[in-house]
Amino acid sequence: MRHNTSFSRIAVAAALAVLALLIPATAQAGGGLSTGSGAIVPGSKAKLVGGKAIAPADAPKQVQKVIAAANRIRNKPYVWGGGHGSWVDNGYDCSGAVSYALHGGRLLNTPLNSTGLANYGARGKGSWISVYGNASHAYMIVAGLRFDTSMTPGNGPGWSKTKRSTSGAFTVRHPRGL
Questions:
Q1: Which of 7, 101, 142, 166 could anchor a disulfide with 70, C-beta 3.0 to 4.6 Å?
Q2: What is the mean pLDDT of residues 62-70?
């Protein structure tokens, strides 16, 4: 009996050692680790894997939740006015998509149109989230990735690594503290 107990302890210790090696390797390979608000990758920049944003481990929980919310509606169809009558909708327009994601991080209580997002929060770029808005369009940069309904794959909300031209046509705002 004593022999089996010692063997069990050794087997458990070996299994834990293997897991300790596999978890960081999985995260570095782009697979990410699972958390309550979705997968995470090491560092302070989100990664784009198969069209889905993977939140950075260094990001505040609110930012991780914004990314998780945006991931839930990515690839939904573009619907003008979508996301403004209800948080859960069949499709989203630009401001409805940004509003939904911000709401997921508990950063917005009511959907805003693009002009409203141009006046949201504090002035200038944020450390983690920057919202770009004008009278006809809105999008945001979250942990280095752009969440937008145009110039992204598909015909609705999606993520992109590429920035878009903002040559003074957009007002830049951010959630206070982020």
A1: 101
A2: 98
